[in-house]
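User: Please run a holo structure prediction.
Assistant: Happy to. Please share the sequence and the ligand.
User: Here you go; the ligand is iron/sulfur cluster.
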Amino acid sequence: MNKPTSYFKKAYEFLERVTPLRTDCGRLCAGRCCKGDEETGMFLFPGEEELIEKTDGFRVLDCDGNFGYKMVVCSGECNRKTRPLACRIYPYFPMITEDGFDVRADIRGITSCPLLYENRKVSKSFLRQVRKVARLFSQNDELKQYILNVNAMLDDLEDFAERTV
Ligand code: SF4
Ligand code: SF4
């Protein structure tokens, strides 16, 4: 089986020309998801650390809550061509289910991302490309397991949110 790192060239290409909205969604919120700090970086997928570490402008840090994988902190500006996968798919996440591949909203962004809390209609081509990442990553055991783990966590967070409404 190929190393997880070898899947990212294709995954990045899938998300090169599509964004959740046809216009720049950063105008809705003054680019809130790019204003992280040492504790709110973007979580890296398995194998991605190797690529991101070599890229100028990024710092890779240990973190909690990412199944033993690291996170990346940036300056708030980046070359779009080198940004990590989490930035390309946010606030959505690939799904692998018994029935196939899908995309879901990432509830971790529900209080900060207007695409979610305003329930914005998202571009079908963007969702299709995130779904293609699910299909691609299902070919690698480590990437597949990571997606399954994050999905189980998102299920728990959604259940908890429903119970506390
Ligand atoms: S927080 Fe949401 S709406 Fe704002 S820039 Fe990020 S993805 Fe777009
Ligand atoms: S890497 Fe780029 S897209 Fe991702 S949070 Fe930083 S500035 Fe935003």
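Residues 6 and 47 are 8 Å apart (CA to CA).
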